[in-house]
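Dear Dr. H.,

I hope your travels went smoothly. While you were away I took the liberty of generating a structure for the chain from your last submission, since the lab meeting agenda had it listed for discussion. I wanted you to have the full record in hand beforehand rather than looking at slides cold. The sequence, exactly as received, is reproduced here:
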Amino acid sequence: MKKIFLNIGIISFVAWGAFSCTNLDEKLYSEIPAEIYPENEMQASLQLLPMYEATRNCVDQGGWWFCQELTSDEVVPPTRHLDWDDGGKWRALQLHTWDNNTEALKQMWPNFFNGVTACNKIADNFATADPENPVVIKTLAKMKIMRAFYYYWLIDNYGDVPYLTSFANAPQQPFKTKRATIFRNIVAQLEESVGYLDAGQGSKTAVNRGMAFSLLAKLYLNAGVYTGEGLTVVHLEKANAYCDSVIALGYSLESNVSAPFVTANENSTENIFTIGYDENLKKDFCLHMRTLHYNHDQKYRLTVSPWNGFAVIPTHYDSYDDNDLRKAAYFLAGPQTDAAGKPLIDGETNEVVDLTKNIPYLMMTPSNTASRQVVRCSGIRASKFEVKLGAGQDLSNDYPIFRLADILLMKAEILVRLGQSGDDYLNQVRTRAGLGGMSGATLDDILAERGRELFWEAHRRQDLIRYGKYKGVNANRWADYPNTVATANEEIFVIPKEQTDKNPNLLAAPID
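The corresponding predicted structure, in token form, is as follows:
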């Protein structure tokens, strides 16, 4: 059946023209035939909007952020007596003891595939469009790049997954495709498609050249993991070239370490590709609620009370020098004040909210913790993203997926892996943070700097895996959970049971 695209804006324009134009020979359409649609980039952009929706669910509601940060050596989700136990779902991430019913894993899978499906529906809708139409070519290129992005997340987190490029023709119960095969396919589609994008940086919340180049650099730098064959010189040289392509687009480090994360960060010179949020129209960015103390509403004049949850693992906090500008910018530590600068009083203990580095146990209970004050105030809290005065549960800050500081640190790592010096690129980030430059930086130096710079941005799990330091990273960290037995394969997450129940083929061996 021939597809017809409806566009109310065009219909209204044509109807108006019927009464104002004297050229009665002109063809008028109430519907736009598929073979001439889209007529312009505005129409095409509207068709692409659905493919970005799944990203908005990833930071707080879709499981992805939790799986990247809470499984790492940066962030801990302690149980505070009766708060934050939730059946142990947070501890499972921290201790790497998840299974196929762990909530965050169950959220990630369908959310990622919702993104793939949205892209594939666009591909199907354009199946009868003119393949020589430049607007069609560019639109399909953007779709392929965004679909590759979702598959990047899928193979990074789950390994072998179904690889689908059509919605209409997809099997009801697809088999998995090997991770390495998907890696090769999406790299090829990215490299084929990026040349059709407009020159320059473009919109930060949509597919753009910087985003595509950054994604290619990420894929090649992690190719050793994705192919299972180890990182080769060819992979490194490709990653290096794509980092150079990003840098050549003219992004620049902000002078202030907090600038990429302020409420109005949509025009940051540093951010490359972001998830766009708005407290009223595009919600679901509420990480501040998960880390701030219950009474921090008085500090920020919030319209809601925060949930007093996630905290910083002490060793990560200790990795920052005291003169590191990021230490004060990224964290809330010590005695807290309200919006007027007065001491912030805990609503239950009537003591000053004094956030301490020490977290005595992963699961703090009345029997193992000295006082309620310890329970409620243990742990440094994250303040990386600005919380504007008067904010509510949702923030309007855009969330960076790719930004220049990450690219510079990737470039430094690549050069060191190639036997060269990465100091010039590493030191750009360190200098911005108020630190002295390093000479002869090692891979471990760069990994540590990535941890400090990219904290709270969901890079740490991937970085630790690439460095071979992820397995058992928190196994002996907590006194109440010594010698934790982790999952059989910690470096990928298990496919959720509800998915394998629906599709037993997901339990079969992958195809090439």
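Two observations you may find useful: The two ends are 33 Å apart (CA to CA). The chain has 21 helices and twelve strands.

With kind regards,
E. W.
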